[in-house]
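Listing 4. Sequential folding, example run.
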Amino acid sequence: MKKKIAILRGINVSGQKKILMADLKVLFEEMGFINVITYIQSGNIIFSSKIDDDLECASIIEGGIKKQYSFEVPTIVISRDELNKAIDNNPYSKDIESSLDKIYLTFLKESPTKERVENLQGDFGGDEFEVIGKNIFVKYAEKYSKSKLTNNFFESKLKVPATTRNWKTTLKLQELSK
């Protein structure tokens, strides 16, 4: 059994795509996953699976949610090792103490092409980012909600599904997946 983390995009936001975490936990168990733990209402699930392939796990989860709730929820699944590697590779780790609330991690379903990454240019008002594999590390000058560097921006430019978590949540997912 491998420890994995499912990161759902766009649930329980402004009353849209409402899914109670207790119900989601039961649904994951019904889909055959074990040791299921949910964390906060934004759709973070730690679980164990016999399935090695993260894209296959994501497809099963997306299908189960679609069947149960009649709406689509993009899902990114990563291994515990992949999460640990992302945390270790944070180019803004030296700024964590002074800017913890301004550092975010955008998870990508797959690695974007080099050409698309090279085309990520523009004036981002002091916001900084770095793409490393299937992750985008972002350091906001102010607030996430005031930035151009959103999930929609990255998805439209990179043509890859994305979902973002703040650094505190990312570290909590690491802690819960031990």
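-- end of first protein; second protein begins --
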Amino acid sequence: MFDAIILAGGGKEEPLTLQEGVANKVFIDLFGRPMLRYILDALDGAVSVGKVIVVGPEEELAGLLEQGSHFTPVPEEGGMLENVAAGLRAADQQRLSLILTGDIPLLSPEIIEEFIKRCAPYTGDFYYPILSQESCTKRFPQMKRTYVPLREGSFTGGNIALLRPRWFARSRHRLDQFIAYRKKPLKLFRLLPVGFIFKFIFRRLTVNDLESYLSEMFQARAHAVPCDLVEIGTDVDKISDLEVVRKELQRQKGPQS
């Protein structure tokens, strides 16, 4: 079994939260339940998941516990990597941990189990899902995503991963630098081999190349996990995303009696 860590921190004022009247988007109401509750319920039904840890605002998490949710609360500490580190400290250090964001309410136990199964035999340090543009646009054509062109096609990432706590701890400084430069392409390219850059420019970069370069950069056994589990990449970042998710949840609920 794997410990699961939900990243539910980082509340900020933005059009989405202002519209919904919340300080943190993971507490947006979706048919009588906060968005975060959907992720908790999905994990609760996944047989491969043991302990569930939620990193987020203390007061709101305490309220969820009072309502009957079962998880270990951990106070948020700042940015994404700080919150990952805080969650991992509460997890089993000897095995891979499942990391998820708190804004993917279309998640289900079956989807979680399928992603975990595709990561077998679990000998790596980091497993990250990649979703094809074709599968994403077919399922939710109205959602806008950023895709990376590879030789095999164009892909986007999911909001779930398996990683080894000990690897994360020893690679933290490299991850900090990568995250800091992720929206500054010129600085980011300085971290990458020249061969990687040219292959990317001429669309000759393959999934295996990506695994090799990331493994070298982060001194890890990194694995991309191709899958068309679109729900793990359907995060709620914008008002338009919320509209798509609400329509899909309504469809799943079926006609109201």
